[in-house]
């Protein structure tokens, strides 16, 4: 049991995606559809499946191979756009697939340069329609420590509540001991928040802890309250909220 809600969509669940989906490679639109499906290949988020008729078929290179997957059989294709060729990144599901998937096309996400929902770029993976993300201003007292060293303290945090993720506590930069933060070259992206503008390691008690804090200077419009603020991994720091020390959650970001 955790203290935050988890996603509850079962694997292989299929739902229509009621939005325009497009993707681009090498400056060319590869697909454009208003009839995509969400398919949950694992519980945390779905993948887009695109109708074959809404894909630019002249860009597909038939590899003359049919593979069996948990959701059915699919014909393998490469993707060629100008001088760019990416083998084995497309599969077209045959009639021997679960309901709704015959003649639907699955692209490897990273095989394309950018994906868009309507006219907004989407990062990392499709946004889960069952995931809720909110940024709420608060007056709770938050203190962040590591190895007994105080890193930040505030009574005006912004709390981000995201389904399937521990509560994240964002603090004003003026309330963070920036002298203990070491900038790194790390950049990550989130389908709900956008792309990070900063990552920092932390120096505490003579030890350097890699990539413990981050910031979004230009988050998505629904997460504007966190713009420019700093957040520390709950999993790798000691977090006190209203003077109560929180247990470090065990997630995929734990080390």
UniProtKB/TrEMBL annotation:
Q: Where is the DUF427 domain?
A: 21-96, 142-235
The source's superkingdom equals Bacteria
Gene3D superfamilies, sorted = Domain of unknown function (DUF427) (2.170.150.40)
Sorted alphabetically, which InterPro entries does this protein's record hold?
Answer: DUF427 (IPR007361), DUF427_sf (IPR038694)
Q: Which PANTHER family match?
A: BLR5716 PROTEIN, DUF427 DOMAIN PROTEIN (AFU_ORTHOLOGUE AFUA_3G02220)
Q: What is the recorded name of this protein?
A: DUF427 domain-containing protein
Naturally occurring in which organism (per UniProt): Plantactinospora alkalitolerans
């Amino acid at each position: 049991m955790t203290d935050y809600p988890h996603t509850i969509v079962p694997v292989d669940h299929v739902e229509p995606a009621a939005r325009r989906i497009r993707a681009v490679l090498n400056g060319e639109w590869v697909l454009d559809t208003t009839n995509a499906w969400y398919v949950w290949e694992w519980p945390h988020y779905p993948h887009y499946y695109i109708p074959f008729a809404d894909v630019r078929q002249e860009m597909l290179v038939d590899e003359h191979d049919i593979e069996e997957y948990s959701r059915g059989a699919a014909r393998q294709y490469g993707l060629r756009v100008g001088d760019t060729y990416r083998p084995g990144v497309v599969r077209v599901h045959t009639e021997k697939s679960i309901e709704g998937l015959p003649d639907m096309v699955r692209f490897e996400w990273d095989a394309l340069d950018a994906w868009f929902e309507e006219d907004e770029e989407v990062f990392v993976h499709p946004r889960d329609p069952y995931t809720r993300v909110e940024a709420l201003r608060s007056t709770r007292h938050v203190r962040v420590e590591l190895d007994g060293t105080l890193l930040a303290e505030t009574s005006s945090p912004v709390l981000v509540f995201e389904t399937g993720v521990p509560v994240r506590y964002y603090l004003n930069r003026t309330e963070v001991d920036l002298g203990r933060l070491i900038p790194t070259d790390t950049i990550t992206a989130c389908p709900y928040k956008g792309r990070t503008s900063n990552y920092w390691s932390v120096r505490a008690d003579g030890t350097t802890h890699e990539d413990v804090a981050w910031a979004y200077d230009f988050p998505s419009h629904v997460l504007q309250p966190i713009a420019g603020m700093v957040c520390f991994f709950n999993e790798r720091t000691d977090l006190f909220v209203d003077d109560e020390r929180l247990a470090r959650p065990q997630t995929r970001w734990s080390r």
